[in-house]
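Much of the work behind modern protein science is quiet bookkeeping, done one molecule at a time. The fold becomes a row of whole numbers, each drawn from a learned catalogue of backbone shapes. The protein below has been through that process, and both of its lines are reproduced in full.
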Amino acid sequence: MLKKRNPIEQILIDHGKITEKTLEEVRRNDFHRGKYLGKVLVDHGYIHSQVLLETLSHELGFPYLQAAEFPKETMPISGLEISEVFLKEKLVLPLKMDTEKLMLAAFDPFDLETFENLKVSLGKEIEVHLSSQEDILEGIERFYGKGHSTMGRMVSNIQEEDTVEVDLESTEHIRDIASEAPVIKLVNHIINQAIEINASDIHLEPFADDLILRYRIDGMLYEHEAPPKRLNSAIVTRIKIMAHLDIAERRLPQDGRIRIQAQGKDIDIRVSTLPTLFGESVVMRILDRGNIIVNLDHLGFPEKELKLFQELIHKPYGQILVTGPTGSGKTTTLYGSLEKINTPEKKIVTIEDPVEYQLRGVNQVHIRPQIGLSFANGLRSIVRQDPDVIMIGEIRDSETADVAIQSALTGHLVFSTVHTNDAAGAITRLQEMEIESFLISSALLGVLAQRLVRVICKECKESCTMEESALSEMGLGKLQSPNAYRGKGCSHCNQTGYRGRTGIYELLVINDEIRPLILSNASSQEIRERAVQCGMKTLRQDGWRKVLEGVTTVEEIIRVTHS
């Protein structure tokens, strides 16, 4: 006989937010007994609180409110005769009251007993809104408590005398502190907060008197509330334990990896520690394995350039280079290219530092220079594996460049990246690595230069007037002034006016016009000018197109293409 489901189980199953397997797993454990199922699912990482609340809001008709949407005025709790303990226990927060009703934020919409008790005791109708545990607790602290944030509440649970800065002999003491629940919760909060706001990196930086916490969102760093400096050793040790690093080694840099399930996602976190003057600095790169398989069609390519690039990646052999600074999305473009041509008839091998994402059906090699597995050495071995397609994470030296060119000339399709400012610069970069010009002209199919620009937030997008300097940059006059847009700033984009990123591109196809210039060792400027005459759109031209389409702003294009 099938076990009858309660309402929340039915709603989440019907909407595909949890599976029967998850429900069975929760029922088998004791941690759910007597507790609201939504809280159990959120606390144990089966579902993200926002997904839970948005689903319940859609099904039950209760509005979903985030902290930024709470009324700013303080609710006089004393006049309501409701204790702070009661609010925290029931996870409810009075938001607004008039003569007839009380507007209440609640985490559990099925707690009818609490709503009825409030209705009877206050003599008012209860208008329920849904909010997360964190937002409700933070609201209680801000309006009725000591004003502690989530971070402040966690820090207050860690005794100061337990976390004084210690010397190298106190490793075991620090390990004990790092293994206790308050520090574990604190580190989990820092990571979960980063995932929630779609940050790509977490930076924890110790200085003389304080610890700074910054998140990189859409390529820009933003400072957030940080724990006190006294907790630096405990936090770093906890992160090292998670990444399987040596907690006793604090004088040398270390690199590791953490794999977690957070908010229903499989997350890889690349960890780098660096000893500084005031303690160890930590950077964590967040890689969401569920979001990497991207379609080239969705990366922001202009239609013409996308068609040309797809023609190049379907060639049987030759070399294709992607160029741009660190963090410009080169790896994503390469993975998108491999995904496009990944068929059972082709053997694809990559050599990377490090392997950022796993691609099904692709043989991926992680270089290890300390044991002699460099790009060049690994590439020589890869060629003997009978591949059709080879992807090299980066061409850093003459040896790797030479093996890559030879591979492209002997029947392999070779993808790689180099660091140059524009597409034409990649050719002179290869020449500087002592690759003969006739080899480059024979092997190279094309060079794609790219940058990432922030996208205007759709929730707060508004029209604006372009400044004369911007019109001049775009080659337009006042009479040609087009519509422009910007983001005003809202809770959805953390008041930045931007949410998400897209690419701008410059595709140099090596054709019969460009090859003679390569053979004659022409400068990158000459190659660039000839390519533009042949129809190549520059990075800035593609950027202006996206400005006119209302995708991004003039300021963004100038910021990323100023060089």
